[in-house]
Hints:
heterodimer, A: about 300 residues, 11 helices, globular, B: alpha/beta, 2 domains, 8-stranded mixed beta sheet, about 30% helix, elongated
Amino acid sequence: MADNQKAKAAASxxxxxxxxxxxxxxxxxxQRLAPERSLLAQALIHLGxxxxxxxxxLGFAAHFFVAVLLHSGTALRRFxxxxxxxxxxxxxxxxxxxxxxxxxxxxxxxxxxxxxERYGSSEALGVLVALSLVRELGPVVAAxxxxxRAGAAITAEIGLxxxxxxxxxxxxxxxxxxxxxxxxxxxxxVISMPLLAALFSAMGIFGGYLVGxxxxxxxxxxxxxxxxxxxxxxxxxxxxxxxSFVFGILISWIAVFEGYDADPTAEGVSRATTRxxxxxxxxxxxxxxxxxxxxxxxx
Amino acid sequence: xxxxxxxxxxxxFVAIGLxxxxxxxxxxxxxxxxxxxxTYQLQAKFDNIxxxxxxxxxxxxxxxxxRVAQIHLDPEAFVAVVTMNVDxxxxxxRDTFATINTSGLLGEQYIGFDVGGDTxxxxxxxxxxxxxxxxxxEKLISQFMFDKAAGDTGDVKK
Lengths: 299, 158
């Protein structure tokens, strides 16, 4: 019952500092089942335990999110802390974003041209490339890359700090680790994500331009002018920025939470890192569906 | 890494990010027109606007001079009322003819102004009197088919 112990450990850690009300774990549910129970009962108990555990963890994550927000005063006042983290999660991600943006744009150019050509409207290539990048691919692919590059790093770093008892040491010295370690990383992710997504979209459009105009020979005038006539700043560009902002919050939240909640062992940290990448990628895609439904279909 | 170098690189990152956002806004989106200066409002009534949408272009001689602000149905006359924001730099005579055109076969629809010869210009809030509705492709085809069917009466000249 590693989960339960972990939950209790986390809860007691929380109790140490009175800034958070102590969350209660599922408690007695977790006792291993008495052997005389029937198979069905065992399965049901297992199911119930899993569900309660998940729900409890979700609640803990939400609680943690509020705690991060409440303790972000230091991160924003002593902005140098956050700048350091922006360097690690933002600046160092530039290269991967630039290269993948360029390639995604070039592929869009090739594929889009191939399809549009059949309908004799290859001039609309600019529109196709720009709209798909600004609305969807830019925010989503940049977020997936960001989750696996920066999110995983944040989780591993915080998890290792916990494993090597640096977090506990901070608490001993009456330094709030949420304010000092977690909040700067959270805000750095939130700030970096929209910038990276914009960079990805811009680079992708440039890649589409390279392939469409320079390589294939679509008319340069209609490439840009149709794009400008169709892409709306508020409707398309701004909605893309809002999307990437939401993704930034999601990824950073999941990354810092998984790190803070990791089992303080080598295995625990590695599992937490995996969970960060999987959970944040899935939630980015799910959130993208919800946001798109509201933004572009006007539900 | 010392503080100044860190700040420098973060500054570079933020500048690049904001730069690409600016690129998206100005070069990819059409913020430049919406932001540039004053516009005045004109209205036009059409029997059928086809696929015209808000924010479609208003063009004269092919040059974009404004955008469609709003479209609604006149509940009494049952005609579509299109409100347009036209750039203040361009004035049009009162007998300007507004048509709904399509750019290319599959392109989007826009309003075209064919300029008349009146000495007085349209002012803010005026209504363009002479309009021509959108060409609805289905109607055109069915008309053609009926004409073909009734070909022996001599309606169709080849």
